[in-house]
Specification:
mainly alpha, 0% strand, globular, single chain, 65% helix
């Protein structure tokens, strides 16, 4: 859960000015966000995780060291697809701990390491069936655990040495990939099916639409808090002597800065739906997004290494400052544009 580091409140007690959307405008915006952003992103995630599952099945049928490279590419595509939608907690992703099952980050108390050690120490495959595997710790069911298995320094030998342990390792990785594909498919189906989330929004009353708008806007703004405080701040520390590189998201696969860039690309796409880009608030939000996104796209792959180097650390400080400015811009533009008032952060569990 991300609540421990998002305990702060987004207390934006804003009154909707004359330019704010009325009920009909808000409904159209939320339906556009659902049709043009949320559902297409889950479609991409479902495809990427299904491709990844099939790649693991092929690999584990005849493991070879040279075939690990394609697996890593499939992982990166699936992780990118998740980074493109991960900040939206509204909808089916928030049920049955699906969000936590997709990716367990930041890791607490070595939950992934302990969980994987327990899994790998077992024998056979009975506990790796979808039903049984779903009963294991959420920490070992998603992308974070799969990254550790795939990008471990000894992964090539561990998967291909022909031992019983290698077979078990392949079984665990395949179970994770199946879980990712299954969860992604369920979330997509529950958005699109005739009695699903989109249908409920299409037929729902103004109160349902306002609730959806409030929750999506809160999720949107919370993304910038996560990037500033956790994806950057927690890793960077207060100086070069306080850097904690292993706190970076995706540090094993070299995706720390890239994941932030994908997050900001997604925020840019959704932001242009939530706030009319032709208005002054929309121009401000777009500028802030593009500024931060450009910095993230040019940042070194390893945030930890860059933060520890006095020559490159200033660039990360500038990126963090740009995200902070973006966060403030989003706080002042998104609720106003939607004509809503935000209170508690939806990730705080309140």
């Amino acid at each position: 859960m991300r609540a421990p580091f998002l305990a702060s409140l987004l207390c934006l007690f804003l009154t909707a000015p004359a330019l704010a959307q009325d009920g009909a405008g808000r409904r159209e915006t939320i339906l556009r966000a659902s049709r043009e952003f949320i559902i297409p992103r889950y479609e991409a995630l479902a495809k990427a995780t299904k491709d990844e599952q099939e790649a693991w099945s092929r690999f584990c049928a005849a493991p070879r060291k040279e075939d690990l490279a394609p697996l890593k590419e499939h992982y990166r595509k699936a992780a990118d697809a998740w980074s493109g939608i991960e900040f939206v907690l509204y909808g089916p992703i928030s049920t049955d701990f699906r969000y936590e099952r997709m990716a367990h980050w930041p890791e607490r108390k070595n939950a992934i390491g302990r969980g994987l050690s327990n899994l790998l120490a077992r024998k056979g495959t009975d506990d790796l069936s979808p039903d049984r595997f779903a009963q294991t710790s959420a920490a070992v069911q998603g992308l974070s655990a799969l990254e550790r298995l795939l990008f471990d320094q000894e992964a090539a030998a561990a998967f291909t040495d022909g031992t019983e342990a290698a077979t078990r390792r392949c079984g665990v990785a395949t179970a994770i990939a199946e879980n990712l594909a299954g969860t992604s498919a369920k979330v997509l189906d529950e958005w699109r099916r005739p009695d699903g989330t989109l249908a409920a929004l299409q037929t729902g009353d103004d109160a349902r639409i306002e609730d959806a708008a409030t929750r999506i806007a809160t999720d949107y703004i919370a993304l910038f808090e996560i990037i500033e405080d956790q994806k950057l701040g927690a890793v960077m520390g207060d100086g070069t002597d306080a850097v904690r590189p292993t706190l970076a998201e995706g540090w094993r696969s070299g995706r720390a800065a890239h994941a932030i860039a994908v997050n900001l690309e997604a925020a840019d796409a959704l932001g242009r739906i939530l706030v009319d880009p032709a208005t002054d608030p929309g121009v401000s939000l777009t500028y802030a997004l593009r500024t931060a996104r450009g910095m993230a796209e040019s940042a070194p792959a390893s945030i930890g290494e860059a933060a520890a180097d006095p020559k490159t650390r200033p660039n990360l400080v500038l990126l963090r400052d740009a995200v902070h400015s973006l966060r403030e811009t989003a706080q002042s533009t998104v609720p106003e544009a939607l004509g809503i008032t935000l209170g508690f952060n939806s990730r705080d569990g309140d």
